[in-house]
Amino acid sequence: MAERKKLLEIKNLKQYFNEGKLNEVKAVDTVSFDIYKGEVMGLVGESGCGKSTTGRTIIRLYDATGGEVIYDGVNVHGKKSKKQLKEFNRKMQMIFQDPYASLNPRLKIADVIAEGIDIHGLAKSKEERMEQVYELLETVGLNKEHATRYPHEFSGGQRQRIGIARALAVQPEFIIADEPISALDVSIQAQVVNLMKKLQKEKDLTYLFIAHDLSMVKYISDRIGVMYFGKMVELAPADELYRNPLHPYTQSLLSAIPAPDPISERSRRRKSYDPASHNYGGNESIEFREVTPGHFVLCSEKEFNQYKAQSNH
Amino acid sequence: MKVEKILQVKDLNISFHTFSGEVKAIRGVSFDLFKGETLAIVGESGSGKSVTTKSIMRLLPEHNSEIKSGEILFNGKDLTKLKDKEMQKIRGHDISMIFQDPMTSLNPTMKIGNQIMEPLIKHQNMSRHAAKERTLDLLKLVGIPKPEIRINQYPHQFSGGMRQRVVIAIALACNPQILIADEPTTALDVTIQAQILELMKDLQKKIDTSIIFITHDLGVVANVADRVAVMYGGKIVEIGTADEIFYNPQHPYTWGLISSMPDMDTDDEELFSIPGTPPDLLDPPKGDAFAARNPFVMKIDLELEPPFFKVSDTHYAATWLLHPDAPKVEPPDAVKRRQNQFNGLTGVSVGTASLEKGSQSQFPGIKEGK
Ligand SMILES: Nc1ncnc2c1ncn2[C@@H]1O[C@H](COP(=O)(O)OP(=O)(O)OP(=O)(O)O)[C@@H](O)[C@H]1O
Ligand SMILES: Nc1ncnc2c1ncn2[C@@H]1O[C@H](COP(=O)(O)OP(=O)(O)OP(=O)(O)O)[C@@H](O)[C@H]1O
Ligand SMILES: [Mg+2]
Ligand SMILES: [Mg+2]
């Protein structure tokens, strides 16, 4: 890949909840990374480490406590006219983690999916609107006949696919997919992932893909970021991360992937991660450092040198 | 060893009455659950896994669902016939359930701590103080840091995976005889998932709980399951021990599932996915519901529903391919690799099937369809 264009620049992003109180949570704590146009950036990490909050802050569902999100050269969190905002909302879409909570129970599926089409005036007639809805339903492996049903009449996986259809409806450029496939059976997972890849190629879509299934993340992502307690601890090209995980949390994560193989599961050994094991001294500076080109790790100078030595053979 | 049946589901048929007609969601499901075992249910999205287990808990929506026929025997009692009051006692005490959507089982306006304490006080007659202690313990057990602070928060202040862990804590609180877990770990990262699975196994060892575990993650199935049931189109199409399903699957739908998984080496090629769409349960097809998507479809698949064929004492599959007169077909490569792996490890070659006693024994000769 020659000249890669940055679509998003996330700089020192912070999102604190209940700031200054006893129950303050630094859900996102000074996180920086770029997303290039047309790539799939995977985001993995412990439950509660701030992945969804990162996504939600990028898309402006939350005001950032600090830092910047630059989309195509424009500061997302800066002041904007109504028209600019609307345009942003179309370009960036989010597929939500909790498909049940994110679908309006009173709307028929056709209207759930067409909401964005209506808001942005993307269909010229009623017929065209329904045509688009049917096409989207088919794209995500549902059928026409589902259009007149209500969200509660669907299984968990079916609802998730409705959420995907709804996001695709407004022809976005950038999609944040928050665990878009974990509720789906493996065959439909494969179908959705193939679909996302196809759209990526055909429409030059860019994704931030948040997920727990590490074999799927590896398969779909160009690069992967690993978060732990609000911090990005490692970021590398997908293959590199799996071949040469450096941060001990990443190692523990990779060692816990269950294999669809009962015999090997019976003898599985997991590595556990204890943050105290770093044993950082008080004056050591812990920074996000580039160990090999494109492979970043949050580490001390001393660890950095170890990682470098480790990676050079 | 595992002989005592704690739950027997017999020929269950369930429909939903909807605007578009009768959705025949469950069409003749039967299975046993043994004491102390983990039975995993896998299968297509929409195939009826959640409906089957919700019916055990009697938690299907009253206004539009109907149990058309069948029995659910728990310790000899038919749960479908119990009065609401009796059922309430069983629910959350003898049988507890972890739901697929954690938000639907948490009350958004109630503090997390109170939601866990309530059933402890109600069902187990604990004092407020004891219930609070137990709640803190449970939250620690499921890996929620700083539980003293967390019990005073509301569900929206928790991440998706943390909510899921709260639901797990509630379900474990009463040491149930049967735990039904519907996708309990899909919202969790693999390290916390591993912790939760350990926790469930511990509980099982301690009090001999039987677990029904629904998941799409075949890695998790391999880790937890003693036996596996595979559902498709409102039916169980294959059931067997974990080894039998993973290393010697017989149903072409199970073959499709196993072929769809990427392994850590799958790279740029497109992932396999089973072509076609799930059957329309408003008007289920005649014959084998999987026929339209089955690359090995035969004429008979379109006419007659396949009975269960016996592969071993513990392994049954409902596909005409197992009939002695059926042509021999080559399973997909991903499946053959598994069979070879297993044969290599055990030295036993995988078995052939026979028709189960009492089932249809004569049928029109099979001819290759299509
Ligand atoms: N309340 C309802 N009204 C109408 N149809 C329903 C209702 N609940 C479920 N169904 C239908 O019953 C079928 C089985 O649904 P179920 O939720 O059991 O699927 P599942 O196997 O759990 O799928 P998933 O893996 O996606 O959770 C689906 O076709 C679904 O659309
Ligand atoms: N609205 C909120 N108010 C207070 N705290 C919150 C809020 N939303 C999230 N948090 C906290 O922020 C942290 C990060 O949550 P987030 O939902 O981003 O995690 P996640 O990485 O997406 O986890 P999961 O994999 O479980 O979905 C958690 O500690 C959570 O409790
Ligand atoms: Mg999340
Ligand atoms: Mg379900």
Low-confidence stretches of chain A: none
Radius of gyration of chain A: 21 Å
Structural class of chain A comes to alpha/beta
Question: At the first level of CATH, what is the class of the largest domain in chain B?
Answer: Alpha Beta
Helix content of chain A: 25-40%
What integer is the average pLDDT of chain A?
Answer: 89
Going across the major beta sheet of chain A, what is the strand order?
A: 6-7-8-3-9-10-12-11
Number of domains as seen in the coordinates of chain B: 2
SS element count, helices of chain A: 11
- What series of H and E elements makes up the topology of chain B? EEEHEEHEHHHHHEHEHEEHHEEHE
Largest interface in this structure: A-B, 67 and 72 residues
Organism (chain B): Neobacillus rhizosphaerae
Membrane topology (chain B): Peripheral membrane protein
GO molecular function (chain B): ATP binding
Family (chain B): Belongs to the ABC transporter superfamily.
Outline the fold blueprint.
The complex is a heterodimer of chains A (313) and B (370).
Chain A: E1 6-17, E2 25-36, E3 40-45, H1 51-58, E4 66-71, E5 74-75, H2 82-91, E6 92-95, H3 109-119, H4 126-139, H5 156-168, E7 174-178, H6 186-203, E8 206-210, H7 214-220, E9 223-228, E10 231-237, H8 238-243, H9 248-255, H10 262-266, E11 287-292, E12 295-299, H11 301-311
Parallel strand pairs in A: 3-8, 3-9, 6-7, 7-8
Antiparallel strand pairs in A: 1-2, 1-4, 4-5, 9-10, 10-12, 11-12
Helix pairs in contact in A: 3-4, 3-5, 4-5
Chain B: E1 5-18, E2 21-34, E3 38-43, H1 49-57, E4 65-74, E5 77-78, H2 84-90, E6 95-98, H3 102-105, H4 112-124, H5 128-141, H6 147-150, H7 160-172, E7 178-182, H8 190-207, E8 210-214, H9 218-224, E9 227-232, E10 235-241, H10 242-247, H11 252-260, E11 309-312, E12 315-317, H12 333-346, E13 354-355
Parallel strand pairs in B: 3-8, 3-9, 6-7, 7-8
Antiparallel strand pairs in B: 1-2, 1-4, 4-5, 9-10, 10-12, 11-12, 11-13
Helix pairs in contact in B: 4-5, 4-7, 5-7
The structure holds adenosine-5'-triphosphate (2 copies) and magnesium ion (MG) (2 copies).
Region (Disordered) (chain B): 346-370
Organism (chain B): Neobacillus rhizosphaerae
Subcellular location (chain B): Cell membrane
